[in-house]
Amino acid sequence: DVPAFQRYESFHLFLQKATAIDPDARFQSAAEMAEQLVGVLRQVVALDGGNPPSAPSTLFSAELGASPDQNPWSFLPIPAVDPMDPAAGVVATVALLGSDQRQALLESTPRSPELSLTMARLAIDEGDLELAERELGSQEARDSGWRVAWWHGVLLLAQDRPADALPYFSAVAAQMPGELAPKLAMATCFEEDARQRAAAGPTANGADLGTAQLHDAVGYYSLVARTDPGFASASFGLARVYELLGDRDEAVSALQRIPKSSSAYLTAQIALCRVRCATLRGQAPNFDDLVASSSTLGALALENSVRLPLERDLHQVTLRLLLDGSVDTGAGVLIGGAELDEDGQRTALEKAYRSLAKLSSSPEERWSLVDLANECRPRTLT
């Protein structure tokens, strides 16, 4: 019930580990404790609105990918190999080998915790979840400490069981309160659990399932994104969750956190265009959203296969809002390079459809797009 502990969860976890009754459950060295404390302090600074300096983890890799549409388990960071493990050298070379060579090497290497975890990881990657479960249940894997909990969580995510995976990642977060990777994994669990609950439909009293989980996901995605903007997957996840909650402004803000230096920056700008044009929980975009989307799109250098669908969507939603009176005609205002009036937007939408038809991969798709172009063309007397 201490307010500071509720606000700064990682600080609370740090104190609990540092003062654990069992000496084996505490930090095992001053260096370990100091490293986690620095990570905790970075999170505290971020929660208070500051911009802590980036600091790569010594215990986890960077994220393995980032997508505005999903955050699969395969994108999560992976634990660093324990350098004290007897098979550490072998494990480090596994990724460089072909599957046959890799399997032969692993089978000829004496069993160890890291070897068992590596075999489990490879099994998960290859879809052999039963083998992964057996490996994680081995004595060697159980001897690896928090690492086996991490891979149990990943395995459960691969089995589409996010609610069951959450306690494993929570246990890792409790062991290493200064690390961001476990919190990113927890956010992923909350998001996926919310989606599964929502797919099940509303409760008997009409309440939306999954809303509480979405808010929990917001908390953890936001913490990671604020502490280290380099975690693009956290900003993408935060935007996705805010879209599900119907909060366009916060979704836009989340995507804007991804810095220009990030390899995901262009993808984030494309996602910005889509979010600003989307209807979220029945709420259509407004005039400012259309202008902002048009401005963002106009500044991007994109292939036609990417640009044209964005232009189509922008003109489509603008025309719809003009026709139903939600947006007024604006003299001299350009949306997607076209006048903000019915004829201007119809002409631009027609052009987008005809351009897409030229890129179509089949005659049927091309004919369909040409029909759409004819339907939306400006109405004339001829």
Question: Could you write a compact summary of the structure shown?
Answer:
With 382 residues, the chain is mainly alpha-helical. The protein has helices spanning 3-7, 9-18, 30-47, 88-94, 99-108, 113-125, 129-136, 139-142, 146-158, 162-175, 181-199, 211-227, 232-245, 248-256, 265-277, 287-298, 304-323, 342-359, 363-376; strands at 330-335, 338-340. It contains 19 helices and 2 strands.
Describe this structure in words.
The protein has 19 helices and two strands. It is mostly helical. Strand 1 and strand 2 form a beta hairpin. Helix 6 packs parallel to helix 9 and helix 9 packs antiparallel against helix 10. The longest helix has 20 residues. The radius of gyration is 25 Å and the shape is elongated. It starts with a helix and ends in a 6-residue tail after the last helix.
